[in-house]
Design a protein that fits this description.
single chain, 726 residues, mainly beta, Immunoglobulin-like, six-stranded mixed sheet, six-stranded antiparallel sheet, 2 helices, 49 strands, globular, disordered N terminus
């Protein structure tokens, strides 16, 4: 929907909003001051350019303040928060603008790991350059202070690639950026020595002028275990930067990102979401890829993806894929909305992505159920303008306008009853046909209107999704550098979501300013002293949830009060004597100077954040769910399955000549890839296939001996088969 500026609205208007859930209502920015919405891919582009500029300048020292570890009061359980100093990375790309899961937890062995790019204090290898490795910090005592093993690994090092033709020692282009990691432990294992640390990171390997490679590695936690490393170079001009990661109870590690073409002047989403699957096999993690189509066919503008996440339930079979995107085929509002897909067979097949429509369509009438959710936000679901303000109005008011929201950021988990929970930070992007939100000319949001953290949950893809308001944010900013004409970090309110291993308790965490402690908010520096906040939820009967009474400021009152520039929380909670523990790493950052390299950033583990177990029912007094607030799904969007194609390959093993036997449900173009044991595509062909049982000859005699994967991809059909080349 095209939107134009309402001429009678004065630029000095201020919105009267409800009191913020985090404390006193803050001073709001002017009503019409927009902030451009910056997608995940755009942030990465800006980060790459900023690092290149900094590498070309003289290195300057960077110091930190208030970096000593100590404790303070914790408002959650009246216990003590303890900060463990995990050292530094050489730039902010470990956490700020990075993928989510750089903190991993294995509750059964009481172990925590933090995956990061190496820092100044870490050996620089043969190049002498700091930050040329992907390392991890390990704690086998549940994150207890004094038991951290710092800079283990490395899981990846550019020492292995200094002789590569594209290697550039000046930019250290093979150094890992945007790492994610997980702790892998066999089902039922209680021995730390049987577990592995697994990490991935983006690598500037020179294949396409941007992050064209995926560096990954793993190491057993047993003493003296060797680290294994490989580099997956992009065969196509694509981004290999994972955005979400999950370890299932069945032993698979899943990672997800939006496939992006980086061959042009910018980075553009192609037409599918990429799901990586890593399975442990004889000391190695083999990989396969599944694609979920998400193209915008015949729409006014191309699909743009903001972020993507993946999560599985405790059974390891039911999982969800969540995407925030602007997609004209699915919605008429030009903004970023949440979509979700589901698997019930452990990730072998996925439904198509389905819209969770938080916005009202331009011709949509009042819906009491959807309105009950939306009326909690802003000042109501429907508003109108006067010469000096915005006021609530009725649905039959001819001058009324619906409120449009966009998903600024999100994360995902799955509870014990296999309900997906999309924890999203949303902000106002426009009012009906009044404020400019035209895409692709540029989507903006308006922090002055307010922002909220919400939980959208769904189980049956053919029925309704429901929404719960978790809190109202004090501020919402999403700038990385060049914000308001200055280089600075203003990335606040990142939503994080964690659950107990059994799925009975969920923790929502985010980063925001406590206006009682820090009343200095102003339009140019809206969140300079954020804290770590949480709110907890107990899962009752299927679809029934109970919240604690209010959001709690975890870092308030400690000597790290206001120090959490941003951070990450592990997707799984630790087990404690009285319930669960949140594993979180926060970021401390000195004043950011654009020409300073390598921009050290300090990481602090926040220990002692205790969460009651589901048995402590008195700790979760607020009942929600079971129809209290319903967010209706769009019945017109189907949930067509991505079928697992019947497929066999004979003979197998073979010296090179094989035949793939396929059962094709619908004729169309097929993409057939041969992938080696480290995930590289070594053969790629496309052909039209008819419907029915068909045979496709394969000529692999030119390949070296080894184990390969044949992958066939067709619209809503996919087939995978492992083969052996003699």
């Amino acid at each position: 929907m095209r939107k134009v500026l309402f001429l009678g609205l004065a630029a000095s208007c201020m919105l009267s909003t409800a009191q913020a859930g985090n404390g006193n209502n803050p001073k709001r920015v002017p009503l019409l001051k927009p902030v451009p919405f910056v997608t995940y891919a755009q942030k990465l582009e800006k980060a790459q350019k900023a690092e290149a500029r900094a590498n070309a300048t003289t290195k300057k020292p960077v110091t930190f303040s208030n970096s000593k570890r100590s404790g303070g009061s914790n408002s959650v359980q009246a216990t003590t928060v303890v900060y463990s100093d995990l050292g530094t990375s050489i730039n902010p790309f470990t956490v700020i603008t990075a993928g989510r899961n750089c903190v991993g937890v294995a509750p059964a062995i009481n172990t925590v790991a933090f995956f990061r790019r190496a820092g100044d204090a870490d050996p620089g290898g043969v190049t002498g350059a700091p930050g040329n490795k992907l390392v991890y910090d390990l704690n086998t005592k549940g994150g207890a202070e004094g038991f951290w093993q710092i800079s283990k690994g490395p899981l990846f090092s550019d020492d292995l690639f200094v002789d590569a033709p594209n290697y550039d020692a000046g930019s250290s282009n093979y150094a890992p950026r945007y790492p994610q990691g997980a702790l892998w432990s066999p089902a039922g294992n209680t021995d730390t020595a049987q577990a592995y640390a697994f990490g991935v990171a983006a690598v500037l390997d020179g294949t396409n002028g941007t992050w064209g490679g995926l560096g990954r590695g793993w190491q057993g936690l047993a003493s003296n275990s060797p680290a294994k490393t490989n580099l997956w170079s992009s065969p196509d001009p694509l981004h290999y930067i994972s955005e979400g990661m999950e370890v299932t109870s069945t032993g698979s590690i899943f990672a997800v990102n939006a496939e992006r073409d980086a061959s042009g002047t910018g980075v553009a989403f192609t037409d599918k979401i990429t799901i990586y699957r890593y399975n442990f096999n004889n000391g190695n993690f083999d990989s396969t890829i599944t694609y979920v189509p998400f193209s915008n066919e015949g729409g006014e503008y191309a699909t743009v993806v903001g972020s993507s996440q993946i999560a599985f339930g405790p059974d390891g079979q039911t999982g969800y894929l969540a995407v925030s995107a602007a997609n004209n085929e699915f919605d008429s509002t030009a903004t970023f909305l949440p979509y979700i897909a589901k698997t019930t067979d452990g990730g072998n097949s996925w439904s198509n992505l389905k819209l969770l429509p938080i916005n009202k369509r331009w011709n949509e009438q009042a819906s009491p159920e959807k309105d009950a959710f939306r009326d909690q936000l802003l000042v109501g679901n429907r508003v109108k303008f006067t010469e000096s303000s915005i006021i609530p109005t009725t649905y039959d008011d001819p001058y009324g306008h619906f409120v449009d929201y966009l998903v600024n950021d999100m994360e995902l988990t799955v509870d014990k009853d296999n309900y997906a929970h999309v924890f999203a930070s949303i902000a106002v992007s426009g009012f009906g046909d009044t404020l400019n939100a035209t895409f692709p000319g540029g989507i903006t949001y308006y922090p002055g209107y307010g922002s909220w953290n919400i939980d959208l949950y769904i189980n049956n893809m053919d029925s309704a999704a429901r929404g719960i308001l978790i809190n109202q944010n004090v501020t919402l900013n999403g700038c990385w550098g060049d914000c308001a004409g200055t280089e600075n970090f203003k990335e606040a309110n990142r939503p994080q979501i964690s659950r107990s291993a059994d799925g009975s308790v969920i923790v929502f965490s985010w980063y925001d300013t406590d206006t009682t402690a820090y009343p200095q908010l102003d339009p140019d520096n809206n969140n300079s002293n954020p804290d770590l906040w949480i709110r907890t939820m107990r899962v009752g009967n299927p679809g029934q949830f109970f919240l604690n009474d209010k959001p709690r400021n975890i870092t308030k009152g400690s000597d790290k009060d206001g120090l959490a520039v941003l951070g990450n929380a592990a997707p799984t909670l630790l087990n404690t004597a009285n319930g669960y523990g949140l594993a979180s790493v926060i970021v401390a950052l000195s004043d950011f100077v654009a020409t300073t390299s390598p921009w050290p950033i300090q990481h602090l583990y926040v220990g002692g954040v205790n969460v009651p177990s589901a048995a402590a029912v008195d700790s979760f007094p607020e009942a929600v769910g079971q129809g209290k607030i319903i967010l209706e799904t769009n019945a017109q969007v189907s949930a067509k399955k991505v079928f697992n194609m019947d497929m066999s390959v004979m003979p197998n093993p073979s010296k090179g000549f094989m035949t793939a036997h396929l059962s094709v449900e619908k004729a169309g173009m097929a993409n057939i890839r041969v992938i080696n044991s480290i995930g590289q595509t070594v053969q790629n062909i496309s052909m039209n296939l008819p419907k029915g049982d068909i045979n496709v000859p394969l000529q692999l005699s030119q390949l070296a001996k080894g184990v390969y994967t044949i992958q066939v991809q067709m619209e809503n059909q996919t087939g995978t088969k492992r083969i052996i080349k003699d």
